Amino acid sequence: MNRPPDANARYRTWFRCYWPRPGARRRLVLFPHGGGSASFYRPLAKRMPPWVEPLIVQYPGREDRLDDPHIDDMDHLVARVTEALLPAFDREVLFFGHSMGAAVAHETAARLEARHGVGPSLLGVSGRPAPRFHKPGDKHLDDAALWYELSRLGATPPALLGNAQVRKVVLPTLRADYRLVERYRPRPDTTVSCAVAACLGDKDPEVTEAEARAWAEVSEGSFAFRLFEGDHFYLRGQEEALATWLLTTADRESP
Fold first, then answer.
1. Which own/partner contact pairs does 18-24 have at CB distance under 8 Å and 24+ positions apart?
2. Less CB within 10 Å around the terminal CB: N or C of the chain?
3. Rounded to the nearest 5°, which phi and psi values hold at 15?
4. How many alpha carbons fall within 13 Å on the CB side of residue 116?
């Protein structure tokens, strides 16, 4: 696909493709969790077969986008991601988002479909309650509470939690992402026509099985569900099983 220079620039800014596969028939777009970055998904992306090109969203304010201002508004973030992602639809596209990333993936899929007539063939959502069970909060107000969340959910290796420099870099990102989620108000009519696949860890303190299964409500297509062993970050160490389940589910939905 021939892209204008500005589209190429947006694409390179917003997405990381550690293993480019120009001949792949599918792209899998991965949306990180709150406080997360593209590198979190490297182990999962690495397990994609040759016919799947993994593409990871890099939100501003982290890693190689550390100097870019954070975005703490869902509509603004989704609008920017959507605009940058349009060139990816020269082949079949799958979405997968974990935690906050599940909400971003859902809203992006809905916006793409409503405004541009394209969208993923499968929306994978992980470790997040369905929109009907969205839980507002105020964790963004207090640094100590934010840092406790990292420890409680296992988002950051324990050895880094006591590092003052890590705390200085991570806290602004975490605060912006929590603010985004807590100000976000899902619309009950935000449905997608594609299939939806929801999953979570069986010991996730943030999401119940019923809340995860309710993602079926946002799909006008089919729905699949998988319970993995583990906590909120069950993905670590189970990338192979997760990749197999996602692609098998996608295969069932392909025309």
1. 18/42, 18/45, 18/46, 18/54, 18/56, 19/45, 19/46, 19/48, 19/53, 19/54, 20/53, 21/50, 21/51, 21/52, 21/53, 22/53, 24/50, 24/51, 24/52, 24/53, 24/91
2. C
3. -130, 145
4. 17
Residues with catalytic annotation?
Answer: 99
Cβ contacts of 27 within 8 Å, gap of 6 or more? 52, 53, 54, 55, 88, 91, 92, 93, 94
The mean per-residue pLDDT over the stretch 26-49 comes to 95
Q: pLDDT tens, 119-162?
A: 999 999 999 999 999 987 655 556 777 767 766 666 666 656 66
Give pLDDT, residue 189. Answer: 80
Extract the tokens encoding 114: 């409503």
What is the pLDDT confidence band of residue 166, given thresholds at 50, 70 and 90? low
Contact 190, 110 (CB under 8 A): yes
Write the DSSP assignment of 129-142 as a string of letters. --GGG-----GGG-
Q: Mean of the per-residue pLDDT values for the chain? A: 90
Q: Are 130 and 196 in contact (CB under 8 A)?
A: no
